[in-house]
Design a protein that fits this description.
mainly alpha, binds aspartic acid, about 425 residues, globular
Length: about 425
């Protein structure tokens, strides 16, 4: 029986359970925002400001606590799983190529939109650069090319335990990559490790889900703080950020992915919309790729006649590893927050954002706001203070619905494309 990674129950009950829990979650988040705004009417009674500051720190610290293990185990389990996939040769290679290509295009669209149009530069940054520089991806060295390279090498090849303890993202990613590749090469086929690692990743993702569940409190505190300071400049910038994210997501979901489905999968846009409508509606209403998985599986089989062997490989893997909408969102959000915090991103920083957004979207669990923990990795990568993520909370929920729909659309088109590539082979 298929088991849902979101709630660990059988596929029949999963859908209603996930629908219910994510609806409750969404309602709680909006209630948090309304309550935060309503508390302002009390005109700062003693202790309320401190309580709100405490709740905000509680939420951000819980998220921060889980970043390092989340990235490490999700990546390691993913690599070992993909290693297994490579044993399935063509299917694994075609699937991996599709994931990398489409996620890369999605981030490129996002970064191109913000680099070409500079939507926020007409507005001043929210804060001037902080005196104490935040943790950054690359250890500070001298500014010469060789100095930067040395710093990079030292950061990449650091002791894995040190990397985990110090939240050195590049070190964590390198350790996960090396250990994962070595495992694929060394372990026997019947090794228990892939299963164990998958379970470890699920445990960590569950803890991340608990942290994300604190979001209504975080939203209440952030709404209270932001509306309290009546920063209309910031609200205006947030609105333009939402429009940019929605526009770029629409380009990817309504133009790029359908074109790929047509050219590489042989499915025209009309057939495509007819077939993906149900899973996309489930994604829109649940904000969870995992919750939409059973519906996506049914659509792949019934609407696009994708073989069971292909659907049951590409779709579950895609629900956790292939997130175009998420990667696009993270790329744009990093550039937006960098501007707000007065941090100028160099070309190298932009390349780093590209790579880290791609990796963190792979590590994000397919649950509502699942990418919030990974988003911090992208911020850390270019030296944006982690506090910055609080600003996103106000608009995170509505945006999540659309990016999840694009994530699910991308997974389904992946199954169609991989199926077509394998048509002549009997896998
Ligand atoms: N909600 C997204 C999904 O389930 C993950 C995220 O971007 O937060 O696909």
């Amino acid at each position: 029986m298929a088991v849902c990674p979101a709630c660990n129950r059988c596929s029949k009950r999963v859908l209603s359970n996930c629908l219910m829990s994510s609806r409750t979650f969404t309602i709680a988040v909006f209630a948090g925002a309304i309550l935060g705004a309503a508390l302002l009417l009390l005109d700062h009674p003693p202790g309320l400001d401190e309580l709100m500051a405490f709740l905000k720190t509680l939420f951000l610290s819980a998220l921060r606590m889980i970043i390092a293990p989340l990235i490490f185990f999700s990546l390691l389990a993913g690599i070992v799983q993909l290693g297994e996939a490579y044993r399935l040769r063509t299917m694994g290679a075609a699937t991996a190529a599709y994931y990398v290509l489409t996620t890369g295009i999605a981030i490129l669209i996002g970064l191109t939109v913000v680099t070409v149009f500079h939507p926020w530069t007409s507005q001043p940054p929210l804060v001037t650069p902080v005196d104490v520089p935040p943790a950054s991806l690359i250890e500070a060295g001298d500014d010469s090319l060789i100095g930067v390279l040395l710093g990079l090498v030292r950061t990449i090849f650091s002791n894995p335990f040190e990397a985990l303890a110090n939240l050195n993202i590049l070190g964590i990613v390198t350790a996960a990559l090396l250990i994962g590749i070595a495992m694929v090469l060394v372990l026997p086929r019947d090794s228990a490790w892939p299963g164990l690692l998958q379970q470890a990743a699920e445990v960590v993702q569950r803890i991340a889900q608990w942290a994300v569940n604190l979001m209504p409190l975080g939203v209440m505190a952030v709404t209270y703080e932001l509306l309290g300071s009546a920063d209309w400049n910031l609200l205006q910038q947030l609105l333009s950020f939402c429009l940019v994210v929605l526009g770029a997501t629409a380009v990817h979901g309504l133009i790029v992915l359908p074109l790929i489905a047509w050219l590489a999968g042989g499915v025209n846009p009309v057939e495509l919309w007819r077939g993906i409508a149900r899973p996309c509606i489930v994604a829109l209403t649940t904000s969870s790729s995992a919750a939409a998985l059973p519906v996506s599986m049914a659509a792949a089989r019934d609407e696009f006649r994708v073989r069971e062997s292909v659907a049951s490989f590409v779709l579950p893997l895609g629900a956790t590893m292939n997130m175009d909408g998420t990667a696009l969102f993270e790329g744009i959000a990093a550039v937006f927050l960098a501007h707000l915090f007065g941090i100028e991103l160099s070309t190298i920083d932009t390349v780093v954002v590209f790579m880290v957004a791609m990796m963190s979207s792979v590590g994000a669990p397919g649950i509502p706001s699942g990418s919030m923990a990974g988003m911090q990795v992208v911020l850390l990568a270019v030296g944006i203070p982690l506090e910055a993520i609080g600003i996103l909370l106000l608009i995170e929920r509505p945006l999540d619905t659309f990016r999840t729909a694009v994530n699910v659309e991308g997974d389904l088109i992946g199954a169609i494309v991989v199926q077509r590539r394998l048509r002549t082979k009997s896998i």
